[in-house]
Amino acid sequence: MTQTVAPHTPEVIGNDLVAEDWERLTFRVHRSAYRSEDVFRAERERIWMTSWLYLGHETEIPRPNDFKSRVVGGKPLIFVRDAQGQIRVWLNACPHRGTILCREPEGNNKHIQCFYHAWTFRTDGEIAAIPGEDAYDFSPGFRESVKLRAVPRVDTHEGFVFISFAPEGPSLLEHLGKAADIMTMATLQAPEGMTVLPGVQRYSVKGNWKLSVENAMDGYHFAPTHNTFVGYLRETGYAVTDDDQYAYDLGDGHGMLRLTGHGGRIGMIWEPRFGEAEKEHTEQVRAEMIARLGEERALQAADASRILYVFPNLMLFDLEALSIRQFEPVSAGVTDVRAWQYVPNGEPEETRQIRLRTMASFIGPGGLATPDDMEAYEAVQRGIEATKGDDRGFNDWSDMSRGMISEVRGEQGRSIDEGAMRSFWRAWSRAVGPVESDDRPGSTSTTGANR
Amino acid sequence: MTELDTARPATGAGRTVTRAEVEEFLYHEAELLDTWRLDDWFALLAEGSTYEVPTNDWTGWSTLEGGFFKSDDYGLLKARVKRLKSRKAHAENPHSRTQRMVSNVRLGERAGDLLEIRANFIVHRFRDDTTQAYVGHYEYLLEVTDDGLLIRRRRAVLTNEAMAAGARLSFIL
User: Fold this and answer.
1) Is residue B139 included in any domain, yes or no?
2) Lower CB density within 10 Å: C or N end of chain A?
3) Mutation to test the A interface, candidates B50, B61, B63, B69, most A Cβ within 10 Å
4) A229 interaction partners in chain B (CB closer than 8 Å)
């Protein structure tokens, strides 16, 4: 069957891979945005090398000289607390010849020593020893020039450590914008602060990173994709509904789903799955929060679940319990993921047990829900090969038009609409700009939509 | 058989358990899982049993102290089995094809009717024209009964540094 599409030029945002049409109320993303290595390279350069990126949480390295080695934006890094307690982020490459300095994933060392020629550095980046250093004495300023290489900018919000490979640009708080307070809200239940626990879920998905962003901002998939998980929740007496759940554009690509139709929040909203004993603890936590924060702020934090996406690589799931998720695009079709349990300090053991078990029952590659999301990313990544190079109509476009009418009416978009995905894609399109892609016949992506 | 084993009675909870019996039990369990006979597999679990898959960086912390991939109590295990039998468990529809190799079976501490077991595994998974190998060891706590063995605790500890691209733990490891 021949498909005919009336000539009409939708609005182009930052590039013609995202096409928004307010006349027809359609929003479409060209599938080369998920497939093309050209697009991936453009993202690396224009997003990952310019934006603030989530690196890790300061409670992962609590003691002086604790370190983690971690790859972010394709760059091997050392995330370390120096002997004075300051957070430092070094490129994990010896200034001498480029050897990986920390080959262990984590540890505690006063010195960072390269095994190759035994150049040795302090955790604050200064040279501790260069074997046979007298041979370099004739070279002025040499010692100063071979200190550990720092990531240009490091800053912290609520213990969340971000880095930027761009020496200049907006401050972290400017970048976070409205997302900053949503992160703060996730800490308010804990008068003694929050901690990231050991036990990081490291996994890797054969899907483009933006599919996981879409998925997190997409309440529409929840009922069909997580049919069996919803069934389990209902059996345990947990109320699940899509009513009164909304999606928020937090600006600059950040987004949030605010969920009040999912009942249980450990320590804040009791549900039968948590057991009778947890009821009293919940009352205590709520009373303490109200006394400390005032009723309005306490209930704002306590009474709604939130899925927060911080552009480009952080998600904070503030649901029954809390989970931090970081993703690291490896190629157009592969994304590495890290996920941590994020817990209030000082809570009773029984509560901690319920919290950790409840979160693991849902989140991660062994949960009852996340594997179905992984199936979705991977099934999309495989499926979009079918329309590659197919320039008939909208065959090679994915649709995200759901609920555009409510944007026209000025209503708050529902979580089961696709508004939070659209605001992400708009920001993405502006950030990435035009891309020359070999994955798209008849378009260089610089000339606007031509269909 | 050790000297201790030979001193045990032939029947009852204190009866002798040989490595051959444990191996047979583990091979049977592996076959049930590879053939997706999940109700039969669930019948191997004693009531109140737990199933854990620690994260790859595990250094021995308890389910109170750190994150896990799986930390199922008996109720959650039951829910997991029910889910996996549903056509709506999309991550496992179609089912992964798995083939388990269980070896290096060692009998550990015996306390009354409880017996610790350690064994190595390689589980090959095939799906969507890709394959991954899950490599690690099992730590079982088995209950010795007159009729055979039951699982009280089942922990699958991965040796892989991280989950490979495309790997997931949607099946029973």
Assistant:
1) yes
2) N
3) B69
4) 83
Place of tokens 């994990």: A92
Options 3.90.380.10, 3.40.47.10, 3.30.390.50, 3.40.630.40; CATH for A178-432 is 3.90.380.10
Does B53 reside within a domain? yes
Tell me the pLDDT tens digit for each residue of A190-204: 999 999 999 999 999
Say whether residue A231 is in contact with chain B using an 8 A CB cutoff: yes
The architecture that CATH gives domain A52-164 is 3-layer Sandwich (2.102)
CATH number at residue B95: 3.10.450.50
How far is the C-alpha of A196 from the C-alpha of B55, rounded, in Å?
14
B53 interfaces chain A, CB cutoff of 8 Å: yes
pLDDT at position A349 over 50: yes
Those residues whose C-beta lies under 8 Å from the C-beta of residue A132, and which sit 6 or more positions away, are none
- Give the pLDDT score at B11: 76
> Does residue B172 lie within any of the structural domains?
no
Name the pTM for this structure: 0.94
Residues 6+ positions from A404 with CB-CB distance below 8 Å: A22, A25, A26, A27, A419, A422
Distance CA A336, CA A207 (A): 10
- For residues A12 and A27, is the Cβ–Cβ distance under 8 A? no
CA A385 to chain centre: 26
pLDDT tens-digit readout, B83-102: 999 999 999 999 999 999 99
> Tens of pLDDT along A359-401?
999 889 999 999 999 999 999 999 999 999 999 999 999 999 9
Q: Do B57 and A353 touch (CB under 8 A)?
A: no
Contact B99, B122 (CB under 8 A): no
Q: Give CATH 2.102.10.10 domain extents, chain A.
A: 52-164
| Residue A62 touches partner B, C-beta closer than 8 Å | no
The ipTM estimated for the assembled molecules is 0.92
Reply yes or no on whether the pLDDT at A447 is more than 60: no
